[in-house]
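Entry for the shared binder. Reason: the reviewer on the internal report wants the predicted structure included alongside the sequence.
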Amino acid sequence: MTTANAIVGVLRFSYPAKEGFSVSCLDEAELEAHLYAPERMQARFEYLERIALPSLAAQTDMGFACVILAGKTLPWRFKARLRALEERHPFLRVAFMERMGALAAAKRSFRRGLEMLEQASGSAATHCTGFRMDDDDAVAVDYVAKTRARADALLGAGLADAPTVVAFARGIYWDLHEPALPYADFREPQPLGLACAMITTADLPTCVYRYNHRKLPGQVPTFMDPEGFMFLRTLHGHNDSGRSIPPHAKPLPLGRARGLIRERFALDPADLEALMPDPPLEAS
C-alpha cells in the first residue's frame, strides 16, 4: 500500500496557552499584557520574518504546510501582519485559537495543516510527520526533504507503525549578545525541539508536542541523524526555555558561520547580525 506522508509544521506565535510555558501561570489578563506588549511583539515579528520564515521559504521540498498558532485575543494589527505573511507564503496558514492547553492547541493546528495539504492534493494522507519550530529559529534548506526521506524509509521498513520521532542532532547556536564569539557548532545528544518531528497516522493520536523534547527517546522510538548543519538556534536573553550555548559546543569562526548561514539556511548574515545589539567582532 502506498503511504501518503504529509509533512506539517506548527509554529506557536505568542500563543497564550494554559500550560507549557514559564509564563503560563499568569492569569489571562497578565499573560496577554506580557505577550502582546508592543516592543516584545516587534521583536518576535522580526525573528519570524527574518529568521524562521525565510528558512522555510527556501526549502528544497516545498510540499509541506506550516501552521502559525496564535491566540484569538491577539490585537487586530498583529493579526493583520500574520495574515499578510500567509498571503506571501503559500505553505503558510495562520490559526487563531481560544486559550487552551498547549497540546490540544498543537494537535488542532497539525490537523489544520494536514487538511490544507489534503485539499491541495485531492487525496487523503495515511500519515502525518509533524515538526515543531519556534519563531526565532531556522531549519536548513533541506530539512523537509531529509525529514520526509527518513520518515518514509522508517514507514517503508515497518519501523514507524507506532508514533516515531525523527530528529537531527547537529546545528548552530547563535548568541545575539556575544559579539566576540556569537556562533557555535554543537551536536545534540538528545532531541532538540528544533529540527524534530514525529511520525503518526493521519488521525493524529498524538504529536511532537506531547512530551518534553529531551524526554522523547524514553517515550517513543527515536531516530537521530548526526549529519549536516540542520538548525540555527538563537539565544537573545528572553527565550522562554532559558537557552544557553552548551558547555562543549565548538566556537565557529565568523567567516565559516556566515558561509553556513548562507548555504545551509538561505539567510543573509548581515541582515541577521543587524538584530544583535553590538555587531560581531570581525577578528573572531
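Summary line for the report: The longest helix spans residues 38-57.
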